[in-house]
Design brief:
single chain; Rhopdopsin 7-helix transmembrane proteins; two-stranded antiparallel ribbon; mainly alpha
Amino acid sequence: MEAMNKGRNITEITQFILLGFSDFPQITALLFVMFLILYITTLTWNLCLVVLIRMDSYLHTPMYFFLSNLSFIDICYITSTVPKMLSNLFQEKQTISFVGCIVQYFMFSTVGLSESCLMTAMAYDRYAAICNPLLYSSIMSPTLCAQMVMGSYTAGFIGSISQIIALLQLHFCGPNVIRHFFCDLPQLLKLSCTDTFLAQVVVLIVTVLYCLINALVIMVSYGYIILSIMKITSAKGRSKAFNTCASHLTAVSLFYTSSAFVYFSSSSGGSSRFDRFVSVFYTVLIPMLNPLVYSLRNKEIKDALKRLQKKPGCY
């Protein structure tokens, strides 16, 4: 469907075609089942982690408060892309309206940028716990924790809305095929029939502020953490201190490595098919892996599950 913008005499596109995985028709059913299982598993694991942290008073600490918010973000993250992808897999014409495309990217960008900020807040929490253990309770007060989480959500919203405003200044007059399974900004910029310089500048600023600076703060925090751990005399003490931040470090590494890989691959004009499959890793797999990373070797989570099973009415 197209509508004529008479003022500028430009035929504006009102919907896009999401190519998705339509160039793999022989495995459409397999992809549907696989992504559906991954989606349900991600929702289940993250929701269970949120409920467990909420119900167990022993987990009412800053670290698990941040973790419950990370699980909430991961639920929103995967929900912003996978349901539409699943609904499109068996449709002959995989379309999304212009408004729907903007809303999808806004949701995806907001939770992605919020997660980047939250990862930084969690790094500061680990820094305070290991480098200033005696002052940890006073430093990481409930008020500060709430402010850091709200700050992460607010920062994510501001970064996302700035990109959307820049995107809405562009015009799309064809073609309208997005070679991806969701509305990603780099793909949209390629389809614009007007100058994208301002939008690219906004994207660069957001990337620097939210990705590079957050990554730098995390690296500095872990620099101090490593120095503090090295000062611990006993091997058992060093191992215990490292285990308290190993999960977060793993999650940060997965998040930033995959995001950076996709960003630089898209910038260099890499294979679109390859980019789509790599994008599955950070849009689908990471939200599923995060609760596992934080739970599998976490004694406090395992103890909380045992306490929950012992409560009346739990079997």
